[in-house]
Amino acid sequence: MTDGLTRSSRADARDNRDRILEAARALFSAEGLAVPMREIARHAGVGPATLYRHFPTKESLVTEAFTEQMGKCGAIVEEALADPDPWHGFCTLVIRVFELHAQDRGRTAAFLSAYPKALALDNTRAGTLANAAELARRAKAAGKLRPDFVVQDLILIIMANSGVRATDPHEAAAASRRFAALAIDAFRADGAAAPLPPATWTPQLVS
Questions:
Q1: Which of 183, 138, 140 is nearest to 159 (CA)?
Q2: Per the database entry, where does the chain bind DNA (predicted)?
Q3: Which of 47, 93, 153, 201 could form a disulfide with 80 if both were Cys (CB 3.0 to 4.6 A apart)?
């Protein structure tokens, strides 16, 4: 009897937590990170006490809400790295990350700007960047990626893609796909023209 009640309580707690995160993501998307915690609780159908029991601070809630987004980006890079054709994997990486950014509409960038010391995401970003660098190394070794490419270039085009804005999400996705195609052409080893200027800044993955 007691075990049954305990399992039921745990299930209720997980359900409440999931509803809070779902509400937070929806409201952050619609209203930005300044949305009040009480509004998130109301949208999730829980009381403020329940919300704060799961997420004692606004930063803890925002960090958890965006961990999933960073995880998606990391998964894309891992899948691209597993591709036996490194150039195909690299192209797929660019296309899929651009698509993810088109859906994100700048929310992750806003989070990273507001909470730059979110350590869990810092660790995720470091691993994702290392995998992206390894993928680039393999694509260069295959003779497909221009030899002067550095991982900062990937971050640069991701940041540029974040500037794509359209009222209609389908239009934003279409613009991102076109930009991805242009970027991939610029990265081809056989399409390289003049050498690139030196990369002197530290990469910061924004999604």
A1: 183
A2: 36-55
A3: 93
Residue with tokens 């009222």: 167
CB 145 within 8 A of CB 189: yes
Which pLDDT score, from 0 to 100, does residue 56 have?
94
The mean pLDDT values, 10 residues at a time, for the chain of 207 residues are: 58 88 82 87 94 92 80 90 97 90 65 58 76 96 94 86 68 84 91 66 53
Domains of the chain: 1-56 (1.10.10.60), 62-191 (1.10.357.10)
Nearest by Cα to 186 from 148, 130, 133, 135? 148
CA pair distance 194, 173, nearest whole angstrom: 30
Give the whole-angstrom CA distance, residue 108 versus residue 32: 10
What is d(CA 89, CA 131) in angstroms, rounded to the nearest whole number? 12
Tokens matching residue 155: 């971050």
Q: What is the pLDDT of residue 104?
A: 66
The alpha carbon of 141 is separated from its chain's Cα centroid by a whole number of angstroms, namely: 27
Report, in this order, helix, strand and coil percent for the chain, each rounded to 5: 75, 0, 25
> CB neighbours of 170 closer than 8 A, spacing ≥ 6?
none
- Token reading at 128: 């994702």
Q: Which two tokens stand for residue 159?
A: 């940041």
| Contact yes or no for 179/164 (Cβ under 8 A) | yes
